Amino acid sequence: MVEKIKVERFTCWYYDVLALQAITLAVHEHEILGIIGPANSGKTSFIRSLNRLNDLNLTFRKQGTVLLDGKDIYAMNPEALRRRVGMVFAMPLSLPMSVYDNVAYGPRRHGRRGKKRLDETVEKALVAASLWDEMKDRLSDSALKLSGGQQQRLCLARTLAVEPEVILFDEPCSGLDPISTAKVEETMLELKQKYTMVLVTNNIKQASRVSDRTAFFLSGELVEIDVPSRLFVTPRDKRTEDYVTGRFG
Amino acid sequence: MKRLFDWIIERFIFLCGILAVIFVALIFLFLLREGVSFFGSYSPIKFVGGIYWYPTSDPPQFGIISLIVGSLFVTVLAACLAIPLGVATALFIAEIAPRWLKDVLKTVIELLAAIPSVVIGFIGMVTLVPLVRQALNLPTGLSAFSGALMLGFMALPTIVTISEDAIRTVPWSYKEGAIALGATRWQTMYRIILPAALPGILGAVMLGVGRVIGETMAVMMITGNAAHIPGSVFDPVRTMTATIAAEMGETVRGSPHYEALFAIGLVLFVITFIVNFTADTFLRKARR
Amino acid sequence: MKSRTAQRIAFAVLLAVSCVVFLPVVSIFVILVKEGGGALTPEFLFTMPSEGMRSGGILPAIIGTLLIVVCAIAVTLPVGVLAAIYLNEYAKDNLLTRVIRLAIVNLAGVPSVVFGLFGLALFVMMLNLGVSVIAGALTLSIMELPSIITTSRNALSSVPASFREVSLSLGVSRWRTIRHVVLPNAVPGILTGAILSLARIAGETAPILFTAAAFYVTRLPHSLSDQVMALPYHLYIISTQIPNMPSKLTYGTALTLVLLVFLMSLAAIILRIIFRRRKKW
Question: Once rounded to an integer, what is the mean pLDDT over residues C156-180?
């Protein structure tokens, strides 16, 4: 089992408010790591630290290390890092442009030219996001006209188009209906062969359906990390049990 | 290559970012340079303390007291008109007016702000000035009073817009609290909303005053431009701005008169700097 | 009951006071249209003045004003937008940023005639540009910088932060994110602000008094280093310096200037409405 991402004693603050406390865990290559926990448990802070999107927050401070393939990501160029570690956000954030331009946005900015090569990239990304059949005749439509579920898969396609190694999902189905959610989950499982994924979700069932291992965060701490069959059935920690049985959160 | 381009453009962006600072400093330095050279040949005490502005007599006299008093007269008068009017209008727009009337009033105020000062000066000259002369039986209608009346209107848009902003941003909870205690809307307005919006309103007033002090064309065309200490508000006066605008064309570049006008510019710059700084302090306090 | 009456009186007073703002706008408009409307003939707008400006048209003043304001905006718009980008996208909350903010506030408050002095000293004298279109335009461009920065900054900050996050999360650099996502979505706001600025400086007189404006030139400008007549200055001259000026021409000039300014402002306001309707997010 290769450790794709290794987080060691990672602690961070916004202003002086502690958001994460000494998190240590690893994300294995080609797995889906689920992260669950109630609101304000630090889940989102955690994955935004993995692609350094937290750097945008000027009040953010951190301690500890995050290694990607053994290299400290906070010593890398953030742009190079984010090309390797993509992200799908909680809300379907399509850019106000056409479907095609949304998917081609990343490759274009990274200097990919030539209509043919772009066409291929866009098609490949849409196919991988299981959106090609629905979109192949609507490529020039505004992305904002699509349904929420389609937009979310479009966002996934946009992320795939820059060919990352790791994909972070920040509650990707929180605004979607059950059918769209099922489609996104199905796509995630298909992508597992090629990508390493981290899925933050506040839907416990989703974590149990999709993830290979699940981590439970509470108040900025990692309480427990295990395979779903144990974490959801026989948790070691009382707090995990309370949460997964719905006693709080 | 790409990174280098990004780096260069970001340096350039930074440069543009600090350009405002550079220009404020440059303006100050240029005014100072001519001003200092003027004070080499003319005592600054006589400049600030002198009553007579006779730039072309021999020897010339460059006392700016009468000009400062002229500016002060016009400004205070205009403020007396514009402040109550402006704050009342702001309150009406922010709290009372129905939606459509609000839009109409705001558009009219935008248009008022858009009228060039030279047009206001011209209209004042052909309508207000003769009116004032006849109504009050004066030798001339070109007076501090006429100028202040027009300037009051010119300060109005600034005062209304920024005060309205301050009034509108008073938190809802304040108003709710007062209404819940049985106060009428009007009581809530003057007991709760106005005091809470006061810093913002003061900031608005200061900005309006700053605008009046710096106003040039309308003032030059309506106030009569007599450089003496006015006996009443119906006397002609001459402001600092009008002096610069009216006389710069006739000076010899580099002469004491030319430099003296820059020295007036320096005084104006310092005054408006203080006024705007104060306004900004109030406004920042209001935003918090 | 008593407080009710007080409220009714207070509201009535406030309504009455508010309506006073109509007074100057409406009366200026009515007077100008009534006295100057008849002067607005094609001949007046498109011919040269004659007989010491006492007859003929105001073409050179219109051309001069348009030339100056277009040059001024052409200079100040890119610089102002970049400055706004710095403040909105790059600046940290530190002393420098506070100093810049303060400088912008104060630059906006410097009297227009002081800008005239500065333009005279820097552009006309030191840089030896002479009294010319370019000297006047540069002076006005500095004067208009604060408002361009402020409106552009508002336009930039109304672009949702999530757009930036999406672009950055794809490994796109900060500048490219601004260039390809933020800026295109801020263009409507920036454009509206620029047109409003155009309208405002078209009416400015004091800054061009010693930097660009000519009393009377008998030919149209040939280059940017020519002195030009300008509408606001022309109005000042003919209403105060020329004896026996036919009043119709003076009113006509004032009306032309006001119409020019109002039409530009109106265009900006309409543009703002159109863009708002089409706003996609």
Answer: 94
- A183 in Cβ contact with A173 (< 8 Å): no
* Lowest-confidence pick of A79-88, B228-237, C124-133, C163-172: B228-237
Which structural domain range is residue B60 located in? 21-287
Q: What contacts A114, CB < 8 A, 6 or more positions away? A: none
Q: In this complex, is the C-beta atom of C98 within 8 Å of any C-beta atom belonging to chain A?
A: no
How many independent structural domains does chain C possess?
1
**pLDDT value, residue C222:** 85
Residue A45 pLDDT > 60, yes or no? yes
CA B219, B222, B226, B230 dihedral sign is negative
Pairing of strands A196-200, A213-218: unpaired
CATH code, domain with C152: 1.10.3720.10
Q: Which residues of A232-246 are buried (b: 16+ CB within 10 A; e: fewer)?
A: beebeeebbbebbee
> How much is the pLDDT for C281?
59
Domain that holds residue C246: 59-278
Q: Which of A57, A73, A82 to mutate to test the interface with C (most CBs of C within 10 A)?
A: A82
Whether residue C116 is contained in a domain is answered as yes
Do the Cβ atoms of B24 and C103 come within 8 Å? yes
As a whole number of Å, the CA-based R_g of chain A is 18
One-letter amino acid of C58: I
Q: For residue C232, name the pLDDT band (cuts at 50, 70, 90).
A: very high
Residue C20 lies in a domain: no
CB proximity under 8 Å: C 164-203 to A: 164-173, 176, 180-181, 185
Domain count, chain B: 1
Given CB atoms, is C18 within the 8 Å cutoff of chain B? yes
Interface test with C, best of A57, A76, A93 (most C CBs within 10 A): A93
Residue B40's φ and ψ, nearest 5 degrees, are -70, -30
Contacts of A9 (CB under 8 A, 6+ apart): A22, A23, A24, A63, A64, A65
**Distance in angstroms (rounded) separating the CA atoms of residues A209 and A207:** 5
Residues in Cβ contact with B254 at an 8 Å cutoff, skipping those fewer than 6 apart: none
Rounded mean pLDDT of B62-79? Answer: 92
> Between chains, do B216 and C142 touch, taking CB under 8 Å as contact?
no
B116/C204 CB distance under 8 A: yes
Sorted by where each starts, the structural domains of chain A and their CATH numbers stand as: 3-244 (3.40.50.300)
Phi-psi group of B165: left, alpha or beta (phi > 0 → left; psi -120 to 50 → alpha; rest → beta): alpha
Selected residue of A57, A87, A99, A109 to mutate for chain C interface (largest C Cβ count, 10 A): A109
Q: Does residue C146 belong to any structural domain of this protein?
A: yes
More confident residue, B136 or B272: B272
Whether residue B244 and residue C18 make contact (CB cut-off 8 A), yes or no, is no
Contact by Cβ (8 Å): C89, C82? no
pLDDT grade for B189, boundaries at 50, 70 and 90 = confident
What does the pLDDT read at residue B190? Answer: 84
DSSP label of A33: E
Whose tokens are 């040269």? That residue is C48
Residue A92 has pLDDT above 90, yes or no: no
Q: What is the CATH number of the domain that holds B274?
A: 1.10.3720.10
Residue A95: pLDDT band (50, 70, 90) is very high
Cβ-nearest to B127 among C4, C31, C175: C31
User: Mean pLDDT, to the nearest integer, of A34-56?
Assistant: 92
Is the confidence at residue B271, as pLDDT, over 60?
A: yes
Query: What confidence score (pLDDT) does residue B191 get?
Result: 86
Mean pLDDT across B267-281: 94
pLDDT band (50, 70, 90) for residue C1? low
Tens of pLDDT, residue by residue over C139-148, are: 999 999 999 9
Q: Is residue B8, in this structure, part of any structural domain at all?
A: no
User: Is residue C231 included in any domain, yes or no?
Assistant: yes
